[in-house]
Every structure is written in structure tokens, then in C-alpha cells.
Amino acid sequence: MLLIVGLSRPTIAGRDHDEIRRLRNAGEILSLEIIIANHRRQHPHGQLLEAELELEEGRYVYDLKFLSQNGVVQEFEYDARTGELWHIEHGEEDH
Questions:
Q1: Is the Cβ–Cβ distance between 86 and 77 less than 8 Å?
Q2: Whether 28 contacts 40, CB under 8 Å
Q3: Angle, CA 8 vertex, CA 46 and CA 84 arms, to 5°
Q4: Between these two residues, 26 and 20, which has the higher pLDDT value?
Q5: What is the pTM of this model?
Q6: Measured between alpha carbons, how far apart are the two ends of the chain, in Å?
Q7: Per DSSP, which regions of the chain are E strands?
Q8: Where do the domains of the chain lie, and which CATH numbers do they carry?
Q9: How many helices (H) does the chain have, and how many strands (E)?
Q10: 86 three-state secondary structure
């Protein structure tokens, strides 16, 4: 039996909402909603498991984890300022 539990709201790792709002208002990052909408245009299937905003090597990155229809967890990293896809990591099947 496979039990899939999704998050009701994405989480933002180590960042408070005021800081994220400041970064968005200053034009330093795109909103998470824009990143997810753009992602869905290219990858319409899959369940969002987790979303994090991270600071990596001086750049903000959105790290999105999705569960594919065939049970594989995939991780997508997007540049938070431009929305450009940087990296895709294909994980193991979820058993």
C-alpha cells in the first residue's frame, strides 16, 4: 500500500514572510506562485510535496519537490530572480 501525504502549503526554509515580501517587493526574487505556474506549464503532472527558498552561493533558489505520476520524487531548482530552471534531480521511487 502506498500512502502519499502532501503539504497543504509550501514551506520556505529559514526565511520569514517579511523577508520574502521585502525581497519580492525589491524585485530581487519572483513570487513562489509565479515559479510554480511557470513550472506547471512545462511539467503539468505531479504533486507538489515541498517548496523551499534557499540562499546558495549568494543566489536565491527555489527548490521544488514533486511526486511524479509513476511514484518518483523529482527535485527542480529555479533561479528565484529570473525563474530559470537550473537543475533537475530524479530521485528514487517512493515505496
A1: yes
A2: no
A3: 50
A4: 26
A5: 0.78
A6: 8
A7: 47-56, 59-67, 72-79, 85-93
A8: 17-93 (3.10.450.40)
A9: 2, 4
A10: strand
Please list, residue by residue across 69-83, b when 16 or more beta carbons sit within 10 angstroms of its beta carbon and e when fewer do: eeeebbebbbbbeee
Angstrom distance (rounded) from CA 18 to CA 2: 38
Q: Which amino acid is at 78?
A: Y
pLDDT digits (tens, 9 = 90+) for 46-64: 999 999 999 888 899 999 9
Phi-psi region of 71 (alpha: psi -120 to 50; beta: other; left: phi over 0): left
In sequence order, the 6+-apart residues with CB closer than 8 A to the CB of 35 are 62, 64, 78, 80, 83
Confidence band, pLDDT 50/70/90 cuts, at residue 15: low
